[in-house]
Structure to design on (229 residues):
């Protein structure tokens, strides 16, 4: 089985500052990795995904994430945040194998951007 | 851009009543998922369909929850009777390739049981 740990429940940051949201996962098999963003009372929107290849993945809205297999991490970063980035961010994994698999989510990190 | 449609957006119901949620996935997406998201937590899978067949309902409380996707297109999730602990956001998602490229989520149904 897979599990995801998001180490910070809330991250406060000032506008235009850099931010890193941490994600660690546990799995006995290789995985695909995802970051989703959720605005209040909305569904989840895919920010970026790692399937294979380059470990640095770029997504929408200026976000990027780096896959580190040895540390089983997939931290999300943005060099300069905007007020509009205030939202809940979820890291998720699914196993890299055939058959029907499910997406397992972490508990989320609330990013609070203030002026 | 294609979207996953869900209705209603908000639902308030009294405990012990029945409630139903509807989802219409992106056209051509064979895999459909219902997730439950309790406030302050990440989404958890309730049921997964491939076409009209259930492939995973291990976390679905079957004594009160039911889900169907009769024609392999839209889907309904029902709760009867509703309990206070069922208050949550119910999210529907769909995908190609069994989700290996990620899911597309709907806007969800916020259920409040009073």
């Amino acid at each position: 089985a897979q599990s995801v740990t998001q180490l910070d429940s809330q991250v406060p940051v000032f506008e235009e500052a850099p931010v890193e949201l941490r994600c660690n996962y546990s799995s006995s098999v290789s995985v695909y990795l995802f970051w989703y963003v959720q605005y209040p009372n909305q569904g989840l929107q895919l920010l970026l995904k790692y399937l294979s290849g380059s470990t640095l993945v770029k997504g929408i809205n200026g976000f990027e994430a780096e896959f580190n297999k040895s540390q089983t991490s997939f931290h999300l970063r943005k060099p300069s945040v905007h007020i509009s980035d205030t939202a809940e961010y979820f890291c998720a994994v699914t196993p890299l194998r055939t058959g029907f698999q499910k997406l397992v989510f972490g508990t989320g990190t609330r990013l609070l951007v203030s002026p | 851009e294609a979207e996953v449609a869900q209705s209603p957006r908000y639902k308030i119901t009294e405990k012990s009543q029945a409630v139903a949620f509807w989802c219409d996935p992106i056209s051509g997406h064979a895999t459909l998922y219902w997730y439950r998201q309790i406030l302050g937590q990440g989404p958890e899978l309730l049921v997964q369909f491939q076409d009209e067949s259930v492939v995973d309902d291990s976390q679905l409380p079957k004594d009160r929850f039911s889900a169907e996707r009769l024609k392999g297109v839209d889907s309904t999730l029902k709760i009867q009777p509703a309990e206070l602990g069922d208050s949550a956001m119910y999210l529907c998602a769909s995908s190609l390739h069994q989700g290996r490229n990620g899911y597309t989520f709907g806007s969800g149904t916020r259920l409040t049981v009073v």
Remarks:
- Chain B touches chain A at residues 4, 6, 31, 33, 40-45, 48, 50, 55-56, 89, 91, 93, 98-108, 110 (CB under 8 Å).
- DSSP finds no helices and eleven strands in chain B.
- The mean pLDDT of chain B is 93.
- The two ends of chain B are 36 Å apart (CA to CA).
